[in-house]
Specification:
This protein has helices at residues 6-9, 20-23, 36-44, 73-81, 85-93, 99-105, 109-112, 125-139, 162-174, 190-193, 202-215, 231-237, 266-278, 302-313, 349-358, 427-433, 462-465, 470-489, and strands at residues 16-17, 31-32, 58-60, 63-65, 154-158, 177-182, 218-221, 240-243, 263-265, 294-298, 318-323, 363-365, 367-374, 380-392, 399-403, 409-412, 415-418, 457-459. The chain is of the alpha/beta class and 494 residues long. It has three domains: 6-139, Alpha-helical ferredoxin (Fumarate Reductase Iron-sulfur Protein, Chain B, domain 2, Orthogonal Bundle), CATH 1.10.1060; 154-248 and 423-489, FAD/NAD(P)-binding domain; 263-418, 3-Layer(bba) Sandwich (FAD/NAD(P)-binding domain). Strand 5 (154-158), helix 9 and strand 6 form a beta-alpha-beta unit.
Length: 494
C-alpha cells in the first residue's frame, strides 16, 4: 500500500464535464479528464482493503456487486499512484479485454462497492482505468498480439458488440481463426449505434477494431445471419458459433394511436443520429424531425437520458421524459446497504442539459402514456398521459403500478422516442439457429455455462443474460470464449 493516509489527504476528484451550454453545440465527448499527476493522487486514495469488494463481482442479497471482470483494482490503483503506468496497464490487461469502453461508459459497480464510499467518497476507479488504457495507447504499449501458432479451428461470432469483440479477441489470441459477422454497416453493435458519440467517441471503437484486424480477426459487415447467410452454411464452414446478437427486441407500447408517424424506438433514433454525424451521405436521408418539435421520451433509464441529450442538441422546442416508477431516494435506503449498488436518484448529462436549456427537469415520475393523438396527416401531435400509483395485487401479492383515476392529462408531443427497455433476443435469430429460449426470450443455457441447446452453438452477452451493462457483456464474451476453447481443445488456456 503506497499511501496509507491517501484517502485522508486527498479528496475525490473525477473527470469534469463541459458546461451544458457549451457541450450541446457538438457531438464530441463531453468529459475532460484529470492530468496524470492529479490522477495519481486519486490512485493514492485506495486503501487496498483486506476484502476488496470492488473486484469481487459476487451476488449479495440477490444483487451483483463489484467488478464482474474481477479486475485487480487495488493493485492497479497503487500502480497509478506510483506512476508506474506500464505495469498498471499490464495488470489491467490480465483481466480486462476492452478497458477503453468501460473507462467511458460503465456505471462503475466497482466504485459502488469501494470501502471508501462507506463513509465518504469512493476511489475514482473508473477514471483510473481510463487513464491507464489511454496512457498505454499513447505510449505505444498496446500492440497486436498475434498468435505464433494457429490451431486450424474456425469460430464464427454473430454480433460485434462488447460480448462479440471480447470473445473474438480471446479466441483469436488462443490461435483459432475468428470471423465476426455484423448486420450493420460498421462494427461495434450498441457501442457504435446505441451509445451516443458524446459518451463514447466512435474513433475509440475503430482503434480497437484495427488492432484486432492486425491480430488476425476477420470482420464482415452488412451480413445479417439468418437472412443474408444461411445457418447451414455457417455450420459447414465453422467448427463453433457464438451468438452475441444482444437483447435487441425493443419493448413497445400498445396504446391507441401507436401507428402515428414520428414515433420511433430509441435505438433506431440514436442509430440514425450517429450515422448522420459520421456519414455525410446519410444526412440526405430522411431523419426523425427534431428541430422546433415537442419531444416526448418514454423511459427513464440511460437510453432515455441519451435521447434527451440528443434531442436537446438537435434543437428540440421542449423535451419531456416519462418514468413509470417513483423517483429514487437521494441517499441509500435502509434496505439498500453498502456494498450493494446504490439505488439512488441521479441527474445525468442529458437531464442537466435539458434543465439548462428549458429551465426545469424533463422527468415526470409515476406516469405513462395511454394514447397518442394524430393530426389529419397521421403525424403524432399530442399524447394522453396518466399518473400511476403502486397497489398490491390481491391475487398474486405483487405490487403493481396502476393508473390514478382522474389524473389524465394531454401534452404536446410531435416526436416520440420509446426507450422502455428490451424483451430479449430477436425471434428470427433464435429460430434460424433452432436454439431454445427461456421465459424472457433470452437464449437458454445451463447456469454458468454458455453452450445452447444446439451442440456447437454458444451464446454470450445480452442475448443470453438479457439487457445488461457493457462490463457484463465483456465478461460473458470472455467466459464464452473459454467454453468454446475447451470444447475445441479439451481444455482452456485463455
Amino acid at each position: 500500500m503506497g499511501k496509507p493516509t491517501g484517502f485522508l489527504e486527498y479528496k475525490r476528484e473525477s473527470a469534469k464535464q463541459e458546461e451544458p451550454r457549451q457541450r450541446i453545440g457538438h457531438f464530441g465527448e463531453i468529459k475532460k479528464y484529470l492530468s496524470k499527476e492529479e490522477q495519481q493522487k486519486q490512485g493514492a486514495r485506495c486503501m487496498e482493503c483486506g476484502v476488496p469488494f470492488c473486484q469481487s463481482g459476487i451476488l449479495l442479497g440477490g444483487m451483483a456487486l463489484g467488478c464482474p471482470l474481477h479486475n485487480l483494482v487495488p493493485e492497479t490503483n497503487d500502480l497509478v499512484y506510483t506512476g508506474n503506468w506500464e505495469q498498471a496497464y499490464l495488470r489491467l490487461s490480465k483481466t480486462h479485454s476492452l478497458p477503453e469502453f468501460t473507462g467511458r461508459v460503465c456505471p462503475a459497480p466497482c466504485e459502488a462497492s469501494c470501502t471508501c464510499g462507506l463513509n465518504g467518497e469512493p476511489v475514482a476507479i473508473k477514471d483510473n482505468e481510463h487513464a491507464i488504457i489511454e496512457t498505454a495507447f499513447e505510449m505505444g504499449w498496446v500492440k497486436p498480439q498475434i498468435p505464433e501458432i494457429r490451431t486450424g479451428k474456425k469460430v464464427a461470432i454473430i454480433g460485434s458488440g462488447p460480448a462479440g469483440l471480447a470473445a473474438a479477441q480471446q479466441l483469436n489470441r488462443r490461435g483459432h481463426q475468428v470471423t465476426v459477422f455484423e448486420r450493420s454497416d460498421r462494427i461495434g453493435g450498441l457501442l457504435r449505434y446505441g451509445i451516443p458519440n458524446m459518451k463514447l467517441d466512435k474513433a475509440v471503437i475503430d482503434r480497437r477494431v484495427r488492432l484486432m484486424e492486425e491480430e488476425g480477426v476477420i470482420f464482415k459487415t452488412g451480413m445479417d445471419v439468418g437472412k443474408d447467410i444461411k445457418v447451414s452454411e455457417l455450420k459447414k464452414e465453422f467448427d463453433r458459433i457464438i451468438l452475441c446478437c444482444g437483447a435487441s427486441n425493443p419493448r413497445d407500447l400498445k396504446v391507441p394511436g401507436r401507428d402515428a408517424n414520428h414515433i420511433f424506438f430509441a435505438v433506431d433514433f440514436l442509430t440514425a443520429v450517429t450515422k448522420s454525424v459520421f456519414d455525410p451521405d446519410f444526412k440526405a436521408q430522411k431523419l426523425a424531425p427534431v428541430k422546433g418539435k415537442h419531444v416526448l421520451v418514454i423511459g427513464g433509464g440511460d437510453t432515455g437520458n441519451d435521447c434527451v441529450g440528443t434531442a436537446v442538441r438537435l434543437g428540440a422546442k421542449s423535451v419531456i421524459q416519462l418514468e413509470m416508477m417513483p423517483k429514487a431516494p437521494d441517499t441509500r435506503a435502509d434496505n439498500n446497504p453498502w456494498p450493494q449498488w446504490p439505488r439512488v436518484s441521479k441527474t445525468d448529462y442529458g437531464q442537466e442539459e435539458a434543465i439548462e436549456v428549458f429551465g426545469h427537469d424533463p422527468r415526470i415520475y409515476q406516469t405513462t402514456v395511454t394514447e397518442f393523438i394524430k393530426d389529419e396527416r397521421g403525424n403524432v401531435q399530442k399524447a394522453k398521459i396518466v399518473k400511476l400509483e403502486s397497489k398490491k395485487d390481491e391475487k398474486t401479492g405483487r405490487m403493481n403500478m396502476v393508473p390514478v383515476e382522474g389524473s389524465e392529462e394531454i401534452i404536446d408531443a410531435q416526436l416520440v422516442l420509446i426507450a422502455a427497455g428490451f424483451l430479449g433476443s430477436e425471434k428470427y435469430v433464435t429460430e434460424a439457429f433452432k436454439v431454445s429460449v427461456n421465459e424472457r426470450d433470452n437464449v437458454e443455457t445451463k447456469p454458468e455455462e454458455y453452450e445452447t441447446s444446439v451442440p456447437g452453438i454458444f451464446a454470450a452477452g445480452d442475448v443470453r443474460r438479457g439487457q445488461s451493462l457493457v462490463v457484463w457483456a465483456i465478461r460473458e464474451g470472455q467466459k464464452s470464449a473459454e467454453a468454446v476453447d475447451a470444447s475445441l481443445m479439451g481444455y482452456s488456456n485463455p
